[in-house]
Amino acid sequence: MHSHDETDDENVYDALASADDDGRWAFGTGFDAGTAEIDAPVPEGVDRDDLATYCLMLADDALVASQRLAGWTTKAPELEEEVALANIALDLLGQARVLLARAGHLGAAEPFRVGPQDDEDVLAYFRDDRAFRNVTLVEIDLGDFAQTVAWILVLASWRLALLQRLTGSRDPVLAAVAGKAVKELTYHRDYAAQWVLRLGDGTPLSHARMQAGLEAVWPFVEELFTAHAVERRLVDAGVAVDPTELRGEVEAVLDQVLPAATLTRPDRAAVGLVGGRGGRDGVHTEALGPVLAVMQSLARAHPEATW
Amino acid sequence: MTVTEDETRDLEADFERTVAAEGRIEPRDWMPEGYRKTLIRQIAQHAHSEIIGMQPEGNWILRAPSLRRKAILLAKVQDEAGHGLYLYSATETLGVDRAELTEKLIDAKQKYSSIFNYPTLTFADIGVIGWLVDGAAICNQVPLCRSSYGPYARAMVRICKEESFHQRQGFELLRTLMAGTDAQRAMVQDAVDRWWWPSLMMFGPADGDSPNTQQSMAWRIKRHTNDELRQRYVDMTVPQAAALGVTLPDPELRWNDELQAHDFGAIDWDEFAQVVKGAGPCNAQRLANRRAAHEDGQWVRDAAAAYAAKRAHQEVPAA
């Protein structure tokens, strides 16, 4: 004989019927930047606009990647994967929000402001694609599940290497965001690595798809290790991480995972740049425009509204 | 070993005593076949509702108009996948598996809540689903936390907590929109007009037309009749609508002092029957999407199984 617990129908219904204190229930209010406040002063000797641009670069990488991953909702191969992909998308969205708020605090939102929205929403919804500073890897179509896990493996390994170093940044907000994100990205990388192993060393079909997924992502990898002028200046100021230093660590991950998954490292050229300019300069692939068009459509239809 | 008729009678008497004394039946306990089947049907239907219910809300994740709303919605849809997972696990304790139930869902051999066959046309629908649809779901589900079947009751405790959180979030979104622009207020009223009647249908047929209710109540699987729960939902929702400043689209809705409850208009049971039968606005689309996700994922599940089999083989020591 098992006794039932003390669930009291009436109390639960009564609690649900009262309509006050809603703020308490709203998930995602406020930011969690770890220990630093969004409005921490700009470190001495650091250019404010450069710092704002760098925050946008790291924010846009996370925001666009999150938007792409959210596109898997209701389409994943198994319910556990629904939960995991949504988790990764939520982590990246959380990282993006703090970084956008920091960029906004540094003045990045002002040229785009048309209504009463918070800085993070001005920057996410009222900026055109040419002002997005993300690397092009994050904006490409994710293809099938194999390509998606190849993409997560590369993206998370790179961002993890970057943010691990950023924990020592002289900017307290960047250091705090990085400190929190490192745990998240470690999970993303491990999740993706597990699936690359399963698919690479699963069936002949999954092996072929896993290799093809890796090939599709590969041309966008080189850009991850290319430094923009803003990054170079901020490296000198002790604020940013030099992306050229990340190659070794990312390659070490791939050198460990790919052979174990019976996959071969692709031999494919990097995508060409437009007059030497890439995602960090706001020169993107054709894929970004439609991604932003969908994301921004409702917010732009009501520029005077907040939600 | 076979169980004799006398033994079966003893087991049945034990079962009846446990249920009548508000005890819990656990997976290893003896239970009548009808009880097992009823539970599988009900829990599977609930699990399918969580999974299909991800689609109408998922429709707005990519277009959510602020990053905070996007995070809330993505987390909510993720919770629904989680609810589906625990509910399918609860059915596994009754001897069926998730794959088998998913096949039944996509072959339209098992049902899910008919509410999810309506389209989400504006972002206000996201708030109204939280407020009305999750509100109705909670009225249905809170008593299930005391269901006689232990694994189901325990899953429902967790699910109800999360559902009530979702209901608050929906209400909070609507309050924000009602304090916003004229266009936002109009969007909310339009969404309420479209979802109110389908939300009343979520409680199922009127008591006189609900064939399974009596047995389910005797088995303590279900604790209240459809009409009792529907009335409770109406009485709970009317003051919330007033607080929001929206009109519920029912000219016959009014307080009845004598009954100490609200009177409300007649539900369009023909529309309900249509939707249940598969001819609602989105039935075909919802099932086609679920089928596509399941079939497109087959090669991934096959690969995971093949990989696991290779690893298991490698762990066997050489003879």
From TrEMBL, chain A:
Pfam families: PaaA_PaaC. InterPro entries: Aromatic_CoA_ox/epox, Ferritin-like, Ferritin-like_SF, PaaA_PaaC, PaaC. NCBIfam families: PA_CoA_Oxy3. PANTHER family: 1,2-PHENYLACETYL-COA EPOXIDASE, SUBUNIT C, PHENYLACETIC ACID DEGRADATION PROTEIN PAA. This is Phenylacetate-CoA oxygenase subunit PaaC. It comes from Actinomycetospora straminea. The gene is paaC.
Automatic annotation (TrEMBL), chain B:
Pfam families: PaaA_PaaC (PF05138). Coiled coil: none annotated. InterPro entries: Aromatic_CoA_ox/epox, Ferritin-like, Ferritin-like_SF, PaaA, PaaA_PaaC. It comes from the Bacteria. This is 1,2-phenylacetyl-CoA epoxidase subunit A. It comes from Actinomycetospora straminea.
